[in-house]
Amino acid sequence: MEYLFVFAQSHEEFRVPELLSISELHGFSIGFDRYANVLDKAIKRPFMILMLDKEEHAHILAQRCILIKSVHEFYAEGASYEVLHEQNSRARPQWERYIPDTSFKFYVLGYNFTISQRRQRQIIESFAYMDFLGKIEMKNPEVTLTVFEEYESGRAPDGGLHKDGEFTRVYFGRLVVDGAARSLMGTFDVKKRQYFGNTSMEAEISLLMANQTLASPGKLIYDPFIGTGSMAYTTAYFGAFVYGSDIDGRQMRGKDKTPGIIRAAAQYGVASRIMDLCTFDITNHPWRCGSFFDAIITDPPYGVRAGAKRLGRKKIREDRLQPAISRPNEPYIPPTKPYELSQLVTDLVLLARYLLRSGGRLVFFLPTVSDEYAPPDINTVLCEGMELVANSLQDFGSWGRRLITIKKTTHADYLPPSFDSVRETEDSKDTHIPAHKDFREKYFQGFRRDSER
Predict the structure, then answer these.
(1) pLDDT reported for residue 426
(2) Phi, then psi, of 233 in degrees rounded to 5
C-alpha cells in the first residue's frame, strides 16, 4: 500500500538513510518504486510516496524517524485538481468505508505558500462527491483528510510572487500518524542541558546519528571521541548501553565532583545506561579482544573548534631540545602530537572492523572541502570487510560534513590496527588524495587552492 510521507525541510540527504535504518531495525522493507531513477531529485522535495506492507510500519517510522512530520494513506496526486479528483475517484475502495458514520475533518495546507481561507473552503467543497455522512468534528475526528499544495520555493517564473492556485503538485490522503520523534529535538536541546561544551553536537544531528547506529534496548555502543557526550544521551535514550572514551578526560568530567556526562545523562533519565567513561588515546587503547560492540558512533575532532591529538612527541629541531628536568612530586603528563584527519579516519575504520560484531555499524562525521570532494574520497577509508551504507551531506557552502555509515559485513576476526596509517599510505599504490586530508589547514586558509596559497 502507498503512503504519503511529509518531511521536515532540513537535512534532505539524511531522510532515506534514516528510513532504511529504522525499517532494517524493525525487520520490514520500504518500497521506493516511484523514484527508481530520480531519487536524488525526489529527496529535495517535502513529499514522497512510498510503499509499506502494513499501516503499523508507518507508525513505527513516525515514532522513531526525526525527519518525518506526518504519514498519510495516499489517495491521489496531480498537477491539477481535475487529475487529483479523477485519481481519488478510482481510489474509492480505500476510503469508502469511512462514508456511512465516521466523524471527519479536512485540512488544506500549502508548502511555500499560505492558501487563503476562501480558497481553502472552495477546495474542501470540491470533494463533496465523496459523500461522507459522518459528523464534522474539528477537535477529535476519527478521520483527518488532508490536501497538500506544493509551490516552488522563491518567486514565480515571471519574477513576481506566487499566486493562489499556481502550485506545481497537489496531494490528497488520510492522516495515519503525526511524527512523534521531532519533539525529541526539544528534549535534547543543548541549551537546556546541564553539561555541554563548545563542541557539543546539536540535538537533531545527534538523534539522526543514533538512528543510523540502529540503537535499541540491549545493544552496546562505543564513542571513542565522546567529548561532552552528545551522542551518548540519544543512543542511551533509545535503550542502548554506552561506553565512552576520550584522550582528554576533562571534557568528560567537567569541574564538578560528579562527571558532567553523568549529570547530563541523569537529566535525561539514562545515567544507568552509561556503562563507563575512560581516558585514553585510541591509538593506545586497552581493548584486548574484538567483535563485541554493536555500533561505534562518534564525531572525530577535525580542527575547526578542537584539533585531534594522539600520544607522541612532535618533531622538534635538535637545536631547540631542552634538557629534561626531574620533578618527582608532579604527575607525569604524556606528550601529544597532532592527529591528521585522513590518518585518523583510516585508523577509525580499521579500529571499527576490529571492535564491531558482524553487521555492526560505524557512524561518524567526515568534513570535506566542497570543491575538492569526489566519491573516491570515501573509498580510500574503506577496507576489507567494511561496506559503505550511507553518505549524507550537511552543506555549509565552501565545506560540508558528511555523515558516513559503514557496516561490518564479515564474520572474520581481525587483529587490532597498527595505527601506522602514514607508513601504510606511503606503501600503498593508491595515489588519490582525499579532500579531507589536511582539512584543518585548508579551513584556516579559507579553502584556497594550492595555486592561490
Answers:
(1) 46
(2) -70, -40
Full 3-state SS string of the chain: CEEEEEECCCCHHHHHHHHHHHHHHHCCCCECHHHCCCHHHHCCCCEEEEECCCHHHHHHHHHHCCCEEEEEEEEEEECCHHHHHHHHHHCHHHHHHHCCCCCEEEEEEEECCCCCHHHHHHHHHCCHHHCCCCCECCCCCCEEEEEEEECCCCCCCCCCCCCCCCCCEEEEEEEEEECCHHHHHHHCCHHHCCCCCCCCCCHHHHHHHHHHCCCCCCCEEEECCCCCCHHHHHHHHCCCEEEEEECCHHHHHCCCCCCHHHHHHHHCCCHHHEEEEEECCHHHCCCCCCCCEEEEEECCCCCCCCCCEEECCCCCCHHHCCCCCCCCCCCCCCCEEECCHHHHHHHHHHHHHHHEEEEEEEEEEEEEECCCCCCHHHHCCCCCCEEEEEEEEEECCCEEEEEEEEEECCCCCCCCCCCCHHHHHHHCCCCCCCCCCCHHHHHHCCCCCHHHC
pLDDT digits (tens, 9 = 90+) for 386-422: 999 999 999 998 999 999 999 999 999 898 888 875 5
What pTM does this model have? Answer: 0.89
Q: For 183-196, write each residue's pLDDT tens digit.
A: 999 999 999 999 99
